[in-house]
């Protein structure tokens, strides 16, 4: 996992705007393709606090615990939060409440959110892209379909 790097997703943001304007199957396909290519920012709490090397790279190893704060809906469902860029991430940082500590910015791909959601014992119902902006939910059911489709492509 990488930390504190710049992430920019103009094509994904454009596909979200296109999908919101016209939720056609074609626009949904474009969005899904862009989403699967994208790298996202996520806020994570790391304990104990990690150190940085001489180049400013955060050093995390097996002694560290990484926690992803989750968005909880009014009906009690939990979703990971994925941000397309620093502007959207800062909206999330302002909303976070919880354990004391410093939140770090991790780079996470959708496949990783899918893996965390679909693993045995997870209480995640999926992922929300830009939860305090565009608010695009990627529910667990969609992740199952995407994982199955990706598995089929890898076998060919």
Lay out the secondary structure.
Layout: E1 2-3, H1 10-21, H2 25-37, E2 39-47, E3 51-52, E4 58-59, E5 65-67, E6 70-72, E7 78-82, H3 86-95, E8 103-109, H4 110-118, E9 124-129, E10 136-139, H5 140-155
Parallel strand pairs: 7-9
Antiparallel strand pairs: 1-8, 2-5, 2-8, 3-4, 6-7, 9-10
Helix pairs in contact: 1-2, 4-5
Give the low-pLDDT segments: none
Strand arrangement, major sheet: 1-8-2-5
Largest sheet: 4 strands, antiparallel
> Taking all residues together, what is the mean pLDDT?
89
The backbone outline, from C-alpha atoms, is globular
Distance between the amino and carboxyl termini = 28 Å
> Which bin fits the share of residues in helices?
25-40%
The number of helical elements comes to 5
* Succession of helices and strands: EHHEEEEEEHEHEEH
Assembly status: single chain
Number of strands: 10
Strand content: 25-35%
Compute the number of structural domains.
1
């Amino acid at each position: 996992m990488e930390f504190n790097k710049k992430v920019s997703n103009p094509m994904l943001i454009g596909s979200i705007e296109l999908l919101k304007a016209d939720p056609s199957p074609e626009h949904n396909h474009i969005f899904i393709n862009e989403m699967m290519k994208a790298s996202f920012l996520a806020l994570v709490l790391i304990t104990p606090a990690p150190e940085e090397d001489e180049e400013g790279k955060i050093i995390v190893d097996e002694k560290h615990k990484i926690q992803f704060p989750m968005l909880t809906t009014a009906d009690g469902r939990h979703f990971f939060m994925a941000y397309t860029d620093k502007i959207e991430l800062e909206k999330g940082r302002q909303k976070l409440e919880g354990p004391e500590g410093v939140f770090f910015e991790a780079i996470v791909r959708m496949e990783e959110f899918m893996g965390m959601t679909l693993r045995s014992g997870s209480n995640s119902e999926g992922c929300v892209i830009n939860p305090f902006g565009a608010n695009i939910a990627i529910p667990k059911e969609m992740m199952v379909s995407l994982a199955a489709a990706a598995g089929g492509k890898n076998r060919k």
